[in-house]
Amino acid sequence: xxxxxxxxxxxxxxxxxxxxxxxxxxxxxxxxxxxxxxxxxxxxxxxxxxxxxxxxxxxxxxxxxxxxxxxxxxxxxxxxxxxxxxxxxxxxxxxxxxxxxxxxxxxxxxxxxxxxxxxxxxxxxxxxxxxxxxxxxxxxxxxxxxxxxx
Length: 150
Description:
single chain; alpha/beta; five-stranded parallel sheet; globular
């Protein structure tokens, strides 16, 4: 799978570890930054990863921040993105199975490297359930289309 990944200064170290983990598990990783521990703004990083996904240059995206809250808001402003902030395996399974998330947001200040790897592994392997969830995703897409017209 092609994975675009980015992190602000809070997630820089965890991004490096996850990039190595993803590569070791056979994924192609596109590290979109930041490449420093100096303070950076996360919205441009989020937009870049999300545009890699919506432009089909990446199959999925991963964004890391301190809490992940602002990153989730920023990612979900991009039409076609369904970003889920996951702190545990339960929310990860819901994010993929029910919401078909195409961007995973992780909170680097909360998760240990091992927990983050488990979440990423679960997120990459959990299939979308479809059914009633597909109907709800279409309703969300309709909201996006409505917003684009205004």
